Amino acid sequence: MPDEVVDNMKLVLKGAKVSMTETIPDNFEVIRSRPHGHVMVILETIKKLGLDKIITKTPSRTKNLVLGMIIARIINPKSKLATARGFHEKTFSNSLGKVLNLERADEDELYSALDWLISKQDKIENKLATLHLDNGSLVLYDVTSTYLEGRGCELGKYGYNRDKKKGKTQIVFGLICDKNGCPIAVEVFEGNTSDTRTLKSQIEKVRKRFGINNVVWVTDRGILTSSNIKELVKPVEGLDYISGLTKASIRKLAEVEAIQLGLFDEVNLVEFESEDYPDERLMACRNPLIAAKNQKQREALLQIAEEQFELIIKAIKREKRALKGADKIALRVAKVLNKYKINKYYNLNITNLGFTYERKQDLIEQ
Q1: Residues 76-95: pLDDT tens digits?
Q2: For residues 60 and 251, what is the distance between their CA atoms, to the nearest angstrom?
Q3: Residue (of 279, 257, 283) closest to 269 by Cα position
Q4: Which of 9, 79, 223, 361 is deepest in the core (most CB within 10 A)?
C-alpha cells in the first residue's frame, strides 16, 4: 500500500478530514462489514445513564454478557441461543460481540449470567430507587402477564390470559416505575395471581426496602380497587393514590348529575366531589380522541341495529306469514337491543300490528 494512503488512513482514524475518494477504490477491497453505529449508540447511552455501574462497578466478562443481552434485546429480541449466535465471530449480526469481547459466548454462558444478575436484583433495584424516588414521589405501578411454552417454571399457572393463548400456563409480573416511566423494580408472581393481590407486596417493598414512606401510588382501577384502598392504602400514614373509576361507577355519577356534562362544553377537565367518595377529590377529563372513537363505534352499532329493525318491519308488513302480535314483535326487537346494548338510545313504539323507532339524538351526542 502506498505510503500516502497509509498516512491518510492514520489521519482519518484520528478524526481528520481527508479526501481519499481517489485512492481508496484502487487500494481497498471490502471483504465483510459489521453493522456498528446502533450498537455504540445504545452502549454509550447505557454508560451515560450510569446503568453499567448500577449493575456492578467491577469490570468482568459476566458484566459484559449482561450488557450484551440488554443491547441485543433492544436491537433485535431473540432467544438466548440466537443471541449467542449473533455475538459469534462467524455468525455475527452486528459488532456487539466484537465490542464486548463476546464472540465465543454460548447459550449456557448467557443463562449463567442471568443467574448472576438475579442474585444482584435487590441491590440494583435499591440503587435505582435511591436515584429516582424520594418522599412525595409518584410511584407508577402496573401488572401484565406472559405465556410460557415449557412446563419447567414453578410459577407457571393457568390464569387470566392477556395473550389469548388457550392452554398455556403463564406468569404475572408487576413493574414499579418513577413518574417518568423509568423502571425501578419488577416482581414475578404465579400465573393465577390476580392483579389486586400483587399490590400489598409492592407497597411493603417501597416502604421497607426502599425506605420511602410518603408516596403517591398511581395505578389502574383493576389494581387499586375500593377494597385495596380501604385495607392497604388509607390505614397507612403517608400513602396517597391516583386511580381511575370503573365505567359503571362513572355512569352512576353521571346519572345522579355529580358530573355535570355541560361543563365539558367549555373545559376538558373538571374537579368535583361526591358523597360516595368521602375525603377524595374526583377529576373528570374529556378526551376528544376517545370521544370521537366512541361516537364512531356507537354510530356503527346503531346502523347495524337499524338494519335489523328494518328487517323486523318488513316481516310485519309482508303478505304471507307476517310477524304479528306485540309480544312476538317485542321479542324480536329485544334480541337486537340486547345483542348490541343500545336500547337506551331509542324511543320504541310496539303494537300488535306495527313497530316504529326513533333515535334519542340528544343522548347520542353526549
Answers
A1: 999 999 999 999 989 999 99
A2: 58
A3: 283
A4: 223
| Residue 334 and residue 302 share a domain | yes
- Rounded CA-CA distance 176/268 in Å is 29
Mark out the alpha helices in 28-162 (DSSP H runs): 37-49, 51-55, 61-75, 80-87, 96-99, 107-119, 121-132
212 and 195 in a common domain? yes
pLDDT at 124: 97
Residue 127 lies in a domain: no
Among residues 88, 178, 68, 173, which one has the least CA distance to residue 129? Answer: 178
Q: How many CB atoms lie within 10 A of CB 39?
A: 22
Task: Please list the ranges in the chain whose pLDDT falls under 50.
Answer: none
CATH of the domain at 143: 3.30.420
Paired with 175 in beta bridges are 142, 186
Examine the domain organization and report whether 184 and 172 are in the same domain: yes
Question: Which of 243-265 are b and which e, b meaning 16 or more Cβ less than 10 Å from the residue's Cβ?
Answer: beeeeeeeeebeeeebbeeeebe
| Same-domain check for residues 351 and 323 | yes
**What sign results for the dihedral spanned by CA atoms 54, 56, 58, 61?**
negative
Q: Could you please report the per-residue DSSP string of 27-52? A: H---------HHHHHHHHHHHHHTHH
Q: Which of 221, 244, 267 is the last residue of a domain?
A: 244
Domain assignment of residue 350, yes or no: yes
Bridge partner list, 239: 215
Instruction: Give the residue among 251, 262, 337 at the shortest CA–CA distance from 301.
Output: 337
d(CA 235, CA 225): 15
Q: Does 178 lie in the same domain as 200?
A: yes
Tell me the HSE value of 112 on the side-chain side, using a 13 A CA sphere. 11
Do both 41 and 111 map to the same domain? yes
Cβ count within 10 A of residue 85: 18
pTM passes above 0.90: no
Q: How far is residue 364 CA from its own chain's centroid?
A: 31
Place of cell 383493576: 222
Asked whether residue 32 is assigned to any structural domain, the reply reads no
Q: Which domain holds residue 22?
A: 1-27
pLDDT at 164: 85
Domain count, the chain: 5
Do 42 and 22 belong to one domain? no
